[in-house]
Structures are given as C-alpha cells and as structure tokens.
Design brief:
Mean pLDDT: 91
Strand content: 15-25%
CATH topology: Rossmann fold
Strand order of the largest sheet: 2-5-1-6-7
Distance between the termini: 21 Å
CATH architecture: 3-Layer(aba) Sandwich
Radius of gyration: 17 Å
Helix content: 25-40%
Number of domains: 1
Low-confidence stretches: none
Structural class: alpha/beta
Number of strands: 7
Number of helices: 6
CATH superfamily: P-loop containing nucleotide triphosphate hydrolases
Length: 200
C-alpha cells in the first residue's frame, strides 16, 4: 500500500505512562484503548468469576485498530470510536487527522498485537514497550483509575495487585510480539530519531 505516514506503536503495562509520553512527542496520537470491545459483546473473554477479562488481548478489536492505523498512514485521516471505560461501552466517534505529519503514535496496552502486521505492510517506524518499576506502575495506575472512576475501588485494587505481580511477564510478552522494551528517556530518543528523514 502507498503510505504518506508511518506509525510508532507504543505499548506497555496499564499505568506505565504511555499516554503522557505520547502527548510529550507532539505527534498525532491514536488511542488504541478506544478499540476495546463493548461489555455486552458475546466474544468478550471472561474471568473464572464471570467478570470481563479486560487484560486479555481478546477483549480488544485488533482488526479495527489496524484498519484505523492503515487509514491514517494512507489518507492522513480516520474515524475512531470513543470508549468510556467506566461504562465498558463506546459512546461516540471522533475524527483524527495527521495534518501532514510523517509520523504518528498509536498507543495502548495491546499495541504490540498488531506490530507484525504493521511491519509487513511497511507502516511501522518503531514499536516500543514502556517498562519501569511494577510498584510505581501500580501506584500510577490506581491513582489514575480512581480519579477517572473507571471501576469500583475493590475491583481496581484486585486488578492492580494482579497486574503488578504479572508485570514482568506482560513486558516479556510484548517484547516477544516485536516491541523494544525501554524506559521513557530512551523511548523519547528513539521517537526523535524516527522523525529524522532518511537520506539516500
């Protein structure tokens, strides 16, 4: 396909600082977490207790997310869902444009799931996984989720404890999918390097 822009996929555990880093780049940002499936979707994976497993890649619409990436790369414009995490539902749509930028950031906890397909299509500039201290990630995630009222406090604490213990494995899985694990300074440096035109 003919592309006018390329994508930097930015992944990492929930609460690792993806959104703030993406904003700091000054590049257009595609929020991949808006492609979660809705709470009443029969394809939504479930935990043993019956609740939705929002930490499974199967809770996310990878094909729709990839479609948005492809449209942004080819046409510089796409329509995305707007997702309300507290309601587990899509509440509308939004239009995202690259405004001629040759790069944009697509950030979300499952971004690495589409890294290989983006690479095969010639759209991938880089794939990064933010990593840090699991305790810091736990604290940052809990404060954010309580502030935004994403779920009830008992649910947030239970999920947060589980994710803190699983964080090394989460990072390892994203690396296996093709993402480079690094901390914020290195991620910003790699993104800055990707913005420099390649001379031939």
């Amino acid at each position: 396909m003919t592309a006018t822009a390329r994508v930097i996929l930015l992944t990492g555990p929930s609460g690792s600082g993806k959104s703030s880093l993406a904003e700091a780049t000054g590049l257009p940002v595609l929020r991949l977490d808006d492609f979660y499936k809705e709470g009443d979707d029969p394809a939504l994976p479930r935990l043993p207790g019956g609740g939705a497993d929002w930490d499974s890649p199967a809770s996310w619409d990878a094909d729709a997310a990839l479609g948005a990436v492809r449209e942004l790369c080819a046409a510089g414009r796409t329509t995305t869902p707007v997702y309300d995490l507290s309601a587990s539902a899509r509440t509308g749509t939004a239009v995202l444009e690259t405004a001629g930028a040759p790069l944009f950031v697509a950030e979300g906890v499952f971004a690495a799931e589409i890294a290989d397909r983006c690479r095969e299509l010639g759209l991938l500039a880089d794939a990064l996984c933010l990593r840090g201290s699991p305790a810091t990630t736990f604290r940052r995630r809990l404060l954010r989720d309580v502030r935004e009222g994403r779920k009830s406090l008992p649910v947030l604490l239970t999920r947060g404890w589980r994710l803190m213990r699983a964080e090394p494995g989460i990072v390892a899985a994203q690396v296996a999918l093709g993402a480079h694990a690094c901390r914020r300074p290195e991620a910003l440096a790699r993104i800055a390097a990707a913005r420099v035109p390649v001379r031939v």
